[in-house]
Amino acid sequence: MKNLFKNIAIITLVFLSSQKSSGQNETILRDDTNTWFTILNRLNINSKWSVSNEFHERLGAFMNEQGTFLWRPSIDYHLNKNIEFSFGYSYINNKPNDPNPNPKIGVVENNIWEQVLLKHESNKVKFQHRFRQENRWFDTVGLNTDDSYSKNGTDYANRFRYRLTVNAPIKTLSNGNELFFQGFDEIWISQTDKLAPKSFSRNWLYLGLGYKFSPKTNIQLGYMNQWDVLGNNVYVSTPIIQTTFVRNFNL
């Protein structure tokens, strides 16, 4: 338990340092509470290969506005129990909500991504370091002569993401099931065409509790704060209630 609170404190400090004010004239916009629902699945083919899949339904204004639908399949190669490589695809249908100033029309992004996952464990506390490189194609939006907005093409951009995840058991119940803590902090970095870091764009901090039905199945409920950079020293802070269901299978 001591290690659990220590790791929560470390993640929180990383998050707070990433959101430190960069100037007296910064503007912080407050979003309404969002509600996100996630399903994560993995099919283990053998000791070296697996296929993973994700579905995300993200709603704004506490389930009153459609936000983002995301589908993300991947193929995974397990070098050993501590190192994993993945290659995947993402389909993202996104409709910006207030207070984001972007036009409120749906835009689609397709991206392919490459990922390295490093794992280690200390005193039953599990750590994961996720490094993801995204290659993105997304709709662009333009202003029409009648002051309406419409899609006017497709643009390309690169993005790098790093996530530190901590998972720690809290209590094993009499039926053998387990309560656990899971938290992560993830930083998003925009890149140039040559993959050089260009600017900080987003930070996620998640703190949640989970109930493990078996080693392959669990459900989690947590709070996440999303911190977006809009530019010109303007930021959006979004509180999110997130529910995650995990179900894995063996071939």
Structure characteristics:
about 250 residues; single chain; 1 helix; Porin
Plain-language structure description:
12% of the residues are buried. The protein is mainly β and 251 residues long. The protein has a single domain, classed as Porin. It is built from 1 helix and 12 strands; from the N terminus they run αββββββββββββ. The two termini are 36 Å apart. An 11-stranded mixed barrel has the order 2-3-4-5-6-7-8-9-10-11-12. It is 7% helix and 71% strand. The protein has one helix spanning 2-18; strands at residues 27-30, 34-44, 49-60, 65-80, 83-94, 107-122, 125-143, 149-172, 178-191, 197-214, 217-231, 234-250.
Overall pLDDT, averaged?
Answer: 89
Q: Name the helix and strand elements from N-terminus to C-terminus, one letter apiece.
A: HEEEEEEEEEEEE
- For the record, the count of structural domains works out to 1
What would the CATH topology be?
A: Porin
The count of β-strands is: 12
Structural class: mainly beta
Helix content: under 10%
Topology overview:
Blueprint: H1 2-18, E1 27-30, E2 34-44, E3 49-60, E4 65-80, E5 83-94, E6 107-122, E7 125-143, E8 149-172, E9 178-191, E10 197-214, E11 217-231, E12 234-250
Parallel strand pairs: 1-12, 2-12
Antiparallel strand pairs: 2-3, 3-4, 4-5, 5-6, 6-7, 7-8, 8-9, 9-10, 10-11, 11-12
Short description:
It contains 1 helix and 12 strands, in the order H-E-E-E-E-E-E-E-E-E-E-E-E.
